[in-house]
Amino acid sequence: MAKYPEQLKLDNQMCFLLYSASRSMTRLYRPLLDELNLTYPQYLVMMVLWESGEKAKLSVGDICEKLMLDTGTVTPLLKRLAAEGYLTRIRDPEDERRVVIRLTDEGCRLRGRAEAVPLQLMCNLGVSDSDTENRDQLMGLLKELVCRLNQ
Amino acid sequence: MAKYPEQLKLDNQMCFLLYSASRSMTRLYRPLLDELNLTYPQYLVMMVLWESGEKAKLSVGDICEKLMLDTGTVTPLLKRLAAEGYLTRIRDPEDERRVVIRLTDEGCRLRGRAEAVPLQLMCNLGVSDSDTENRDQLMGLLKELVCRLNQ
DNA sequence: GTATTTTATATTGTGCACAATATTATTTTA
DNA sequence: TAAAATAATATTGTGCACAATATAAAATAC
Lengths: 151, 151
Known about the structure:
Radius of gyration of chain A: 19 Å
Oligomer: homodimer
Largest interface: A-B, 53 and 53 residues
CATH superfamily of the largest domain in chain A: Winged helix-like DNA-binding domain superfamily/Winged helix DNA-binding domain
Shape of chain A: globular
Order of helices and strands of chain A: HHEHHEEHHH
Mean pLDDT of chain A: 93
Helix content of chain A: 55-70%
CATH topology of the largest domain in chain A: Arc Repressor Mutant, subunit A
Number of strands of chain A: 3
Number of domains of chain A: 2
Distance between the termini of chain A: 41 Å
CATH architecture of the largest domain in chain A: Orthogonal Bundle
Largest sheet of chain A: 3 strands, antiparallel
């Protein structure tokens, strides 16, 4: 009887593990982000803006680059965040091709509430000090992998 | 000047790394799966079926469980695979609530072509023998994480 | 200085992902 | 055994993800 090829088994595939882990992790964020009225990708965009500073002016392309997403994903996402009142989208008068994204006051205020999210998440996950080592190791390996996957 | 909180930085967030890694990995699969006329989630479903054996009868729920996806994702995906001719969807006469999913001959044949995908992928990634250790370590840590994320 | 090319963003279309709800069949209970 | 509860799948609606294309502005070439 021919054996089923090992490398084709779901359990042996890194990609499926990444896919599962990513979705499971996002699921853990969801109830926390619901309270901020954000989806996970929206939260990512807000983090890019918060991290760039309250007065920062980012282009759509800047945000796409940092998150490795394309305009087809980001443009409508930014429109929804603008509709929520968290940011403004204004065409740059200096270069009419560009659209400048800036935090509104409400978008800035949201950061205060968002700061609690990472800690709350750890708590929900039940992370102890002894897990820190594994966590750091995992993040190191993931960084290497992402690096290699993008050449 | 108040320092920006470390734990809110994108680079320090495991979830973003998982999200990036998962998308980057799927991107690497895409050109290979295009040749099989499959998307990555469709490829996952086919792997579940192949792994269960050519004659296996799986319910929609079985597939949802193995991939940790819900029916809202899987039902239309199965319809597309059925339209491609890779599987059949037949309501179980024993229990009319259930829908039995079975591979067609064409779906079985596709496995032969799919067997090349994992190796081709490694090749594209430029994986060497010395990477095996890191790979095993990463997969171990990911398995642990997924396990914990689903209680 | 106009034509060409490049750059930045938007639009369209398909396929997930998932919450919420609906539908229908089976099982359990009163 | 009729009603209630449970189970299996489907449907609906919103929001990504991304390829392909469109649009328009700026840069460059000629």
